[in-house]
Design a protein that fits this description.
The protein is mainly alpha-helical and 265 residues long. It has helices spanning 2-47, 59-66, 70-82, 101-122, 128-147, 149-166, 170-190, 197-212, 215-233, 245-250, and strands spanning 86-89, 93-96. It has ten helices and two strands; from the N terminus they run αααββααααααα. The chain has a two-stranded antiparallel sheet with strand order 1-2.
Length: 265
Amino acid sequence: MKAFKSDLDERRRATGYVLLAMRTIDDMASRKNEANLVYDMLTRAIIEQALAPETKLPEEAISKQLNVSRHAVRLALQMLATDELVEIRQNKGATVAKPGIEQGRDILRMRMELEDVVVRTLAGKLTALQVEELRKSVELEHAYVEKDPASYKGQTCSFHRTLARMTNSKLLSKYLDPLLTQSSLVFYIYGRPHWTKCNSDEHAEIIDALEIGDIERAQSIMRMHLEAIYERAFSDDKISDVNSLHDALNRYIGSGVRPKADAGV
């Protein structure tokens, strides 16, 4: 009888350990999902230039406004720091990053080189469905350009990120994705691009060249497109309207921010 009771107690303890482990796994998954949500929201706010460089990002304030745990916010900020979108300093907390002018130039130059690889890889290899997806992306750019400039910035960069994804090169996307988002910080600091339909028209021309497999034309248009962006980044008037953290995040609460935000133009 004692042996039976001992065996039963052992099984109960084992069951308890399993249930505890399952709860722990569920808690970790929940925190990761929350962290990803915060990461996506802050990234999009940076991409759409709702947050200025050097904006303070206090964990407690973000946690309360978004109704998530401080741990999730901390994880998200660490992820953003890895992407060099946020700077975390001991005893000073986190702030939106502020690239120096030489770093800004390097970011845009490296974009040019990597996006050249993208168009070389895709020329003549796009499927009909991929071409359709890209053309719909450009249609959204045209729809947003005047009525919603912030969404337009996000959509134009979505085009570039989609191209990178279509190469099926995880390594290429790994290095290009952060540069796309960092480009928005460069534009914010050193000049405001003229968000006009010419950007969308250039995107349409890139699709045309890729669809027929004209590598040289695709490379030429992409290079011209990015060089124009480079020139605007370092010559236009600076952005004067600055949002508070609270106002910037309010734009995205309840907006279903799930896609990994896209950046740049």
